[in-house]
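Please, structure for the following, as tokens.
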Amino acid sequence: MKIICIGRNYADHINELKNNRPTEPVIFLKTDTSVILKNQPFFIPNFSNDIHHEVEVLIKIKKIGKHIDPKFSHKYYDEISLGIDFTARDLQSELKSKGLPWEKSKAFDGSALIGKWVDKSIFNDVNNLNFSLELNGNLAQKGSTSLMLWSIDEIISYVSKYFTLKIGDVIFTGTPSGVGPVNINDQLIGKIEDEEFFKLKIK
């Protein structure tokens, strides 16, 4: 299983981190060991003092594809979820300043939360999904897939130019603004259209 992540896919998040707006999707990968096991908490690693939450809509690939035309992208996934791309922001900033890859700050063990999966057919329009993240009962992030710079279908097509998509691969589609730090004993709850997709404790 590959975990393929899209960075800088929401304009407000780009502005939030003072990044340059990309002309094409930004891609990075997470390892299979980055996935938090079911019913397990997120453990803050000892190499960072600034772990941030980034809530994202996820899709799961259902068949092998390469060089997929955008008009056929919808045939390559049936399931949608919500997750968190945990980021060691201090480490990422250091790596970026040196022009180095982000993986140590993005793909470390336990850095990917994947919520429950549901069939996309339960939604009226996957390109207009409202989703949110609550931190200790307070709204921390909210977004809509309608605000993506690149839609789900466009992402699938673009990614498939570089990586063969295989059954079970997961794509993180990007985070809206509102990213911020997590601390021990925090609780995170993620929702799509007011339905809970995950609840996570920080340890």
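The longest helix spans residues 152-162. The chain has four helices and 14 strands.
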